[in-house]
């Protein structure tokens, strides 16, 4: 441990010309400064297919449970059954994806070792462990026709937990230092909810007959509009950090998603009497939702890989705060 | 009983009991963590040593457990190094126990294209024979009519991370053999 | 809680980069003690830094920065006249070790040993779903390898990019401030090895006091670009257990200038997520209403 | 120092914390420069001019510490009338024998002094026949003064006013007068204002109250004038009163755990333990005549008989008797230079047939690495002992000559034995560190497999040879059969007891009790001692090298940690820390003082002086040995008790340092018309071709060096992954200006070429390398860390492939720190094309077998 060190290099002697004490000029850097262009934060190690896939499947499943519950109680059996099967299938796929992405899959039960409200993943794990059985039971009951009361109860449960499954993942990715995610943490849940709803609606359109698909169309419409609006809002708030959403793979995915959403919604509204048009529109909406999640995922990764998205906003914040900050950006 | 023990070890249960409600401290600690000790603390023996790299001569503590070196740390008692080590000194555990060490005698016969294995005992015997033979062949009683009592047939070049005692025996043996071309890194 | 005797004081690192000689003893001592895998041969062209960054297999990383800037009144003894090429070029494509432009003939070589910051508000710890990451009695943040299931959440959560996944093993790893050693009253391996006491270990309060004296001395001597980093309990991570004396802006060393623990915004995220979920329920109800 | 001795550098930081100024002089801006107050970049190979400039500054400004200079140096001594300086002879000294490339130092002597014949007592006929004078000088005799100066005796004339034109002080003044700041700029490329600043800092921090220390390493020794580099520093430090005082000195920062020990107990051809010279061949040489010739009258070397007889008793025990001159005849004799590079030539000629390499890797670590390998390729047998399969063990299989087809594995007849070595944790023994401190390391575990210590190897090899020769009546086998070789062994591997060897080194008296000081040694055969300067390391039957009293429990000198030779004193010549009257020069710098009450020298360190000899002591007429020194003769190992500003004997290439250009330099010498050291040692051999001075084909200067992350030729670091990953491959450091001039790309490849061969390295372009202006033109220098070779985990070409065998005439150390070269972008040619590539360079530079051979 020892004493404070006072070995001041260059102070005892050294260069006498040029400038006197205390007059070190700060050389203003015209450019953005980083350590050899290396990222400041780590990019997520999550595999795209696993985790972006999970964001999509979880959103679809959760929202489908809502639609299924609604359909269940408004006597739209095909739509309800489709929603329940989607939810149950979704949750199985989601669980497989999650476990597959673990570095130590055999330790997946450790997810329930603690309950941490500070960890969206912990909260999500507990939610999933409630939602999974409910969605499963609801689906089994719907398909087999057995245990109708329990099935109804499970349908209600899944319908209530489902939305949280759809939106907690927004908190999950926003609760990171990834600039493009964290910066959008206010809007992200609405993007996810909208995207989930739109996908669930889309799936309903795909699965249900024309006479039963009104809720699906409405769900898709509401979802799609919220998604598009929330996304625009998020992009605006992100400022320069929105760049990764517009460029590269992410940019392509997001643009495709937006186009598909608009097309899907248009098709769903305009072709509402045509089973085929409805189905194609539904498919477009489901794909749009997937594209959106993959786009968001990719944008996040890209924003973590370039230090300017980390340093830039922080430097701006510092400068705004004390006004004396040295302009580096 | 087992269930209770399991339950008591379950961090969620500990969280609920209020010891650490957020689950970020004590409650999350595993048994392995709770029992963690520095491996030097459980060593059988601490052997005093000196770093083998440069000539600063930093003190080292060599920790031994079950007949194996488990760690090498700077010796805080040393007035030279005060417990500190440079990257090389810090790597001396890997130097001495790492994958770079070779533990077998190898032999390349004249014109051989590959290494062959050879027992240590046999190798020593062969080397002793070579020394005796080469010494006899190259023996000089005189050069230019003046007594020299030596052999120019054998030479040795040693590193300078050898011990004084090793250098002493090398110089003593080779001088007695009449070999004079005994050199080391100090000239390099 | 009250009947529990007060634990040990909060322990920390003060890394005074103004006396760092870039020897990398900390890197090796850390690897030896913690038996961290060697991670490949890669000449980076980033001055003498071939380690590049903190990650699962590097818990101490010495940064090397060459700058056309004066170090107080040091006479650097170099005589260059031309301009410095664009420093934004990645090292592999750069015509020379990238360096900060400045006056020709100025040169300073900054070296700094980076490490996990052991934040007061540690995002990695907050987001860990398994409790593998926990806060010790020394107020340090440690991953338990026997618990971690490699979910990877802590990795993008860290505002400093410290913790990382070890590919071949799947789990997350980072500096433990030698939890096993300090528990037995020993110094962490890096601080123990550091030849020039650039890395100092001790009770955080003492270290902060020492650092502030050191800073005053430096400022008084005219080293005006010296600054402390991570010593402020009011910063975005509540101050760090490992803090630094730097001679330039943090980003020059690859450190974020104003890091924030992401979980500071978590309540807002939960609120919005809940609202969005409620909206979804509402949407479901509306969607299913039968038009009369 | 921060680069290569980081833990030692903590003390520099401590000094800085107390206000010390740190000046770093190095061609490159290194990790040491980063922490220095002043970094001076200079041309590699120009340090004598730089230091000479400092000496000149001190003399011109009379900034010397005059009382110290008068009392403790030979400034007042008057030199013979027939001495001629480089001033008079345009760059050479009187006595130059151009035929044999040697100096006859007779004219360098003090007026009134006896002139010892270099070859000892008269044997003129023999000398005539063999030019023994020359060969003895070749025999690195200078090193025999590793613990003291050369012999001078007689009634030396002095002038205490320092005004006599032939007194050392005046000679010095004239000699260094041309080393002006302008000349320093011309030679070194150091701007005058930087140089003046260094002058002012050094002189302001020297004198009564302050001291300046110089630290150096092989950047000073690996030159054709290496010894004279250190001589220049000695002159400066003696003038400034910085020797023998705390915070002063000229500190050799040595790079191997026991490299000091390996010269004290030398595995060196020209020395016996304790710097006793190996006997040179003379007709009818006896113990008596040897001592007569080699010992001195005054000072501690006056007792050489005690040291040598005790050594012979230690080696040959009962067989060494007064009747047989204590087996003095058992010692083999030298007939010239038998140093390592001569041995390589002898290997190539076929004289030397068997070679042991113990922890040494000349195939990449020695100069002109190809020559080293070709030497090995000509051997009958080779024994390599190391941790791993180093390049010196595998050249026959995968060496560079296999690639160029200069050698073919199936046509090479060398028999190779590889024996794995034990590490420091697997054996007990002592290392002698850079400050002469012996520290014991204890065996922690047994070596695994067939790994064995060198102690084990040497002991058991000797045992087997003795067993095989037992019963021989051949007189040539007597020394080996009569050798004391019965060390106790222990454990299942029969490891010899290192402590028993240390006991023998320490020595014992007639009753077998361990001696406690070399002053107890006798010349009558009643004492034994394996190395007189180490006598006392086992005092009181205690392994003093294994003392480990924590530094926190003792004073700053820490005398109870380990054991320093001689006599456990920590600062040599510490009598000089007090004034002639025995009072410390300053309270701040008090280390030793005369205590009149107890009539003893007192202070925290062990006095490097007879402890009860008062300051006013005058020796009796005819006194010999230490008793012949006065109470003010602080430099007790010197024959006249003085620090030598001028060396009247002992240095073969001149009594004063003069700047000579490196053997291969892109410049001509602006100081004298003599270009290079006239008696540098050159080797004419087809694989050792030299470059002509000033050749435009080789316009750059390269210097080799170490990195913090590696160790010498890499045997202890390239195989260690944690170190290898920090510095993963061979690279060169160049300035952006040179990169632009030659089209080198950062991280690209460059080929560096000398007259010997070419190597390839990755390029690091950095402003830490600076162009210099030397003699009006821009000079670029190239940095080459020399740690690599083709084997191991981290690999690369060896920088030593480039270096020539051209040597300092005193030490036979090669010039690898200042070499002219060329650099070009891209990788080097492979296979035989490499040979053609280098041949082309040689053609272009007009290199013949005579190039570089001129005086």
Would you write up a description of this structure?
- The complex is a heterotetramer of chains A (329), B (188), C (292) and D (855).
- In chain B, 32% of the residues lie in helices and 26% in strands.
- Chain B folds into three domains: 2-34, no CATH class; 39-97, ADC-like domains (N-terminal domain of TfIIb), CATH 2.20.25.90; 138-188, no CATH class.
- Chain B has 188 residues and is of the alpha+beta class.
- Chain B contains seven helices and eight strands.
- Chain C is an alpha+beta fold and 292 residues long.
- Chain C has two domains: 11-37 and 51-61 and 112-219 and 228-260, Alpha-Beta Plaits, CATH 3.30.70.20; 265-292.
- Chain C has helices spanning 25-34, 123-127, 154-157, 179-183, 189-193, 204-220, 266-288; strands at 11-16, 60-67, 108-115, 133-135, 141-143, 164-165, 172-173, 199-203, 227-229, 242-246.
- Chain D has 855 residues and is an alpha/beta fold.
- Among the domains of chain D are: 1-40, no CATH class; 340-431 and 446-480, Rossmann fold (3-Layer(aba) Sandwich), CATH 3.40.50; 681-844, Barwin-like endoglucanases (Beta Barrel), CATH 2.40.40.20.
- Chain D is 25% helix and 13% strand.
- Chain D is built from 25 helices and 30 strands.
- Chain D has a six-stranded mixed beta sheet with strand order 23-25-24-30-22-28. Chain D has a three-stranded parallel beta sheet with strand order 11-12-13, with no helix packed on it. A three-stranded antiparallel beta sheet of chain D has the order 14-15-18, with helices on one face.
- In chain D, a hairpin with a 4-residue loop joins strand 24 (749-753) and strand 25.
- Mean pLDDT of chain D is 94; it is low at 117-126.
- At the B-D interface, strand 1, strand 2, strand 3, helix 4 and helix 5 of B face helix 5, helix 12, helix 15, strand 11 and strand 12 of D.
- Strand 4 of chain B pairs antiparallel with strand 13 of chain D.
């Amino acid at each position: 441990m020892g004493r404070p060190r006072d070995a001041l290099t260059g102070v005892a002697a050294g260069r006498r010309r040029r400038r006197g004490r205390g007059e070190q000029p700060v050389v203003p850097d015209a450019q953005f400064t980083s350590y050899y262009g290396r990222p400041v934060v780590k990019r997520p190690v999550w595999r795209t297919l696993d985790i972006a896939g999970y964001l999509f499947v979880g959103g679809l499943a959760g929202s489908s449970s809502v639609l299924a519950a609604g359909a269940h109680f408004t006597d739209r059996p095909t739509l309800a059954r489709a929603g329940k099967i989607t939810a149950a299938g979704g949750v199985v796929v989601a669980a497989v994806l999650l476990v597959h992405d673990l570095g130590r899959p055999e330790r997946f039960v450790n997810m329930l070792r603690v309950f941490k409200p500070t960890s969206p993943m912990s909260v999500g794990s507990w939610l999933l462990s409630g939602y999974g059985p409910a969605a499963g039971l609801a689906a089994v009951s719907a398909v087999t026709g057995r245990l109708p009361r329990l099935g109804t109860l499970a349908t209600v449960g899944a319908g209530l937990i489902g939305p949280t499954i759809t939106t907690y993942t927004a908190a999950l990715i926003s609760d990171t230092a990834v600039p493009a995610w964290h910066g959008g943490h206010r809007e992200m849940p609405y993007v996810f909810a909208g995207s989930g709803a739109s996908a669930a609606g889309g799936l309903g359109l795909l699965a249900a007959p024309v006479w039963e698909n009104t809720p699906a169309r409405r769900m898709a419409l509401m979802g799609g509009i919220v998604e598009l609006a929330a996304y625009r809002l998020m992009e605006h708030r992100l400022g320069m950090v929105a760049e990764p959403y517009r460029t590269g793979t992410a940019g392509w995915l997001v643009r495709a998603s937006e186009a598909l959403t608009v097309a899907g919604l248009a098709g769903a509204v305009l072709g509402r009497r045509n089973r085929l048009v409805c189905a194609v529109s539904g498919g477009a909406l489901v794909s749009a939702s997937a594209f959106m999640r993959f786009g968001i995922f990719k944008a996040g990764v890209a924003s973590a890989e370039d230090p300017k998205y980390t340093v830039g906003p922080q430097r701006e914040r510092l400068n705004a705060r004390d006004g004396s900050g040295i302009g580096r950006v | 009983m087992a269930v209770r023990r399991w339950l008591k070890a379950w961090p969620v249960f500990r969280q609920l009991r209020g010891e650490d409600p957020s689950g970020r401290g004590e409650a999350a600690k595993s048994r392995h963590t709770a029992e963690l000790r520095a491996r030097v603390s459980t060593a059988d023996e601490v052997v005093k040593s000196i770093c083998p790299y440069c000539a600063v001569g930093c003190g080292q503590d060599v920790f031994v457990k079950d007949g194996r070196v488990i760690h090498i740390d700077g010796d805080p008692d040393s007035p030279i190094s005060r417990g500190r080590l440079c990257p090389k000194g810090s790597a001396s555990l890997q130097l001495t126990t790492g994958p770079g060490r070779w533990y077998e005698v190898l032999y390349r016969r004249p014109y051989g294209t590959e290494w062959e294995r050879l027992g240590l005992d046999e190798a020593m015997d062969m080397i002793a024979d070579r020394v005796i033979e080469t010494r006899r062949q190259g023996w000089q009683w005189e050069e230019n009519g003046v007594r020299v009592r030596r052999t120019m047939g054998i030479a040795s070049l040693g590193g300078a991370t050898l011990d004084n005692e090793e250098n002493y025996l090398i110089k003593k043996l080779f001088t007695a053999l009449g070999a004079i071309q005994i050199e080391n890194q100090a000239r390099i | 809680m009250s009947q529990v005797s007060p634990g040990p004081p909060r322990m920390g690192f003060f890394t005074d980069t103004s006396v760092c000689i870039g020897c990398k003893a900390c890197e090796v001592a850390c690897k030896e003690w913690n038996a961290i895998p060697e991670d490949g041969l890669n000449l980076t062209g980033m001055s003498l830094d071939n380690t590049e960054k903190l990650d699962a297999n590097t818990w101490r990383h010495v940064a090397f920065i060459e700058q056309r800037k004066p170090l107080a009144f040091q006479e650097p003894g170099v005589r260059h006249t031309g301009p410095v090429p664009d420093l934004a070029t990645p090292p592999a494509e750069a015509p020379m070790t990238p360096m900060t432009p400045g006056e020709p003939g100025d040169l300073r070589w900054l070296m700094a040993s980076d490490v996990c910051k052991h934040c007061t508000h540690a995002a990695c710890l907050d987001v860990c779903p398994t409790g593998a990451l926990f806060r010790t009695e020394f107020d340090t943040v440690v991953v338990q390898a026997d618990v971690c299931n490699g979910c990877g959440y802590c990795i993008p959560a860290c505002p400093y990019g410290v913790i990382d996944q070890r590919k071949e093993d799947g789990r997350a790893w980072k500096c433990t401030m030698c939890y096993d050693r300090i528990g037995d009253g020993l110094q962490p391996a890096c601080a123990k090895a550091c030849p020039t006491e650039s890395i100092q270990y001790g009770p955080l309060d003492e270290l902060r006091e020492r650092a502030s004296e050191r800073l005053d001395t430096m400022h008084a001597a005219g080293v005006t670009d010296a600054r402390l980093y991570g010593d402020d309990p009011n910063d975005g991570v509540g101050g760090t257990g490992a803090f630094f004396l730097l001679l330039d802006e943090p980003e020059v060393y690859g450190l974020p200038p104003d890091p924030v623990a992401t979980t500071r915004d978590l309540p807002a995220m939960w609120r919005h997520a809940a609202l969005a979920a409620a909206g979804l329920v509402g949407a479901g109800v509306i969607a299913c209403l039968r038009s009369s | 120092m921060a680069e290569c001795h980081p833990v030692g550098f903590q003390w520099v930081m401590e000094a800085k914390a107390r206000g010390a100024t740190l000046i770093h002089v190095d061609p490159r801006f290194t990790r040491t420069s980063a922490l220095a107050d002043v970094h001076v970049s200079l041309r590699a190979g120009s340090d004598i001019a730089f230091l000479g400039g400092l000496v000149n500054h001190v003399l011109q400004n009379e900034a010397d510490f005059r009382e110290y200079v008068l009392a403790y140096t030979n400034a007042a001594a008057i030199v013979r009338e027939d001495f001629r300086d480089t001033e008079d002879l345009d760059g050479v000294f009187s006595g130059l024998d151009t035929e044999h490339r040697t100096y006859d130092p007779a004219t360098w002597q003090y007026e009134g002094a006896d002139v010892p014949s270099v070859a000892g007592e008269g044997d003129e006929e023999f000398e005539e026949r063999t030019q023994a004078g020359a060969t003895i000088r070749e025999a690195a005799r200078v090193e025999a003064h590793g613990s003291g100066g050369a012999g001078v005796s007689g009634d030396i004339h002095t002038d205490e006013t320092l005004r006599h034109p032939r007194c050392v002080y005046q000679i010095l003044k004239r000699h260094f007068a041309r080393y002006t700041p302008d000349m320093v700029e011309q030679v070194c490329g150091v701007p005058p204002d930087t140089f003046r600043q260094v002058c002012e800092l050094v002189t302001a921090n020297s004198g009564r109250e302050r001291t300046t220390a110089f630290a150096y390493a092989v950047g000073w020794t690996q030159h054709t004038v290496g010894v004279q580099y250190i001589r220049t520093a000695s002159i400066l430090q003696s003038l400034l009163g910085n020797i023998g005082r705390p915070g002063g000195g000229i500190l050799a920062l040595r790079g191997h755990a026991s490299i000091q020990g390996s010269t004290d107990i030398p595995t060196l051809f020209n020395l016996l333990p304790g710097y006793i010279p190996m006997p040179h061949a003379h007709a009818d040489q006896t113990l008596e005549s040897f001592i007569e010739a080699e010992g001195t009258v005054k000072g501690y070397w006056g007792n050489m008989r005690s040291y040598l007889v005790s050594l012979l008793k230690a080696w040959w025990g009962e067989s060494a008797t007064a009747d047989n001159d204590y087996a003095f005849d058992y010692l083999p004799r030298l007939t010239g230079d038998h140093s390592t590079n001569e041995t390589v030539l002898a290997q190539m000629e076929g004289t030397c047939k068997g070679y042991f390499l113990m922890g040494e890797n000349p195939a990449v670590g020695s100069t002109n690495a190809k020559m080293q390998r070709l030497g090995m390729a000509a051997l009958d047998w080779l024994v390599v002992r190391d941790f791993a399969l180093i390049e010196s063990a595998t050249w026959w299989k995968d060496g560079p000559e296999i690639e160029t087809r200069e050698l073919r594995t199936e046509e090479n007849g060398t028999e190779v034995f590889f024996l794995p070595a034990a590490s420091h944790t697997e054996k007990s023994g002592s290392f002698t560190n850079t400050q002469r401190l012996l520290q014991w390391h204890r065996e922690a575990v047994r070596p695994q497999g067939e790994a064995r210590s060198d102690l084990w190897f040497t002991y058991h090899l000797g045992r087997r040879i003795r067993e095989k020769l037992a019963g021989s009546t051949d007189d040539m086998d007597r020394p080996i059969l009569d050798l004391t070789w019965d060390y106790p062994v222990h454990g299942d591997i029969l490891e010899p007891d290192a402590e028993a060897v240390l006991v023998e080194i320490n020595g014992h008296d007639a009753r077998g009790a361990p001696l406690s000081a070399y002053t107890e040694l006798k010349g009558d055969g009643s004492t034994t001692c394996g190395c007189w300067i180490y006598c006392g390391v086992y005092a009181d039957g205690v392994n003093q090298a294994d003392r480990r009293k924590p530094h926190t429990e003792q004073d700053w000198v820490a005398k109870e940690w380990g054991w320093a030779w001689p006599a456990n004193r920590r600062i040599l010549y510490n009598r000089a820390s007090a004034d002639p009257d025995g009072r410390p020069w300053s309270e701040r710098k008090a280390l030793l003082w005369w205590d009149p009450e107890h009539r003893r020298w007192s202070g925290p360190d062990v006095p490097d002086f007879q402890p009860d000899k008062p300051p006013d002591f005058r020796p009796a007429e005819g006194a010999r040995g230490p008793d012949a020194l006065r109470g003010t003769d602080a430099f007790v190992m010197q024959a006249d008790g003085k620090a030598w500003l001028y060396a009247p004997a002992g240095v073969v290439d001149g009594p004063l340092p003069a700047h000579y250009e490196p053997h291969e330099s892109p410049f001509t010498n602006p100081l004298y018309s003599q270009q290079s050291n006239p008696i540098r040692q050159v080797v004419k051999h087809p694989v050792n071709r030299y470059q002509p001075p000033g050749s435009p084909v080789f316009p750059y200067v390269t210097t080799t060096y170490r990195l913090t992350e590696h160790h010498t030729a890499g045997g202890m670091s390239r195989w260690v992954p944690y170190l290898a990953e920090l510095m993963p491959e061979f690279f060169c450091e160049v300035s952006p200006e040179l990169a632009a001039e030659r089209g080198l790309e950062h991280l690209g490849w460059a080929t560096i070429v000398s007259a010997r061969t070419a190597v390839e390295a990755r390029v690091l372009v950095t402003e830490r390398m600076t162009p210099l202006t030397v003699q009006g033109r821009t000079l670029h220098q190239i940095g080459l860390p020399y740690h690599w070779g083709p084997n191991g985990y981290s690999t690369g070409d060896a920088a030593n492939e480039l270096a020539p065998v051209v040597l300092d005439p005193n030490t036979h150390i090669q010039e690898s720190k200042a070499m002219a070269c060329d650099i070009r972008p891209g990788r080097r040619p492979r296979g035989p094309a490499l040979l053609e590539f280098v041949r082309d360079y040689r053609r272009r530079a007009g290199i013949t077998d005579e190039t570089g051979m001129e005086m």
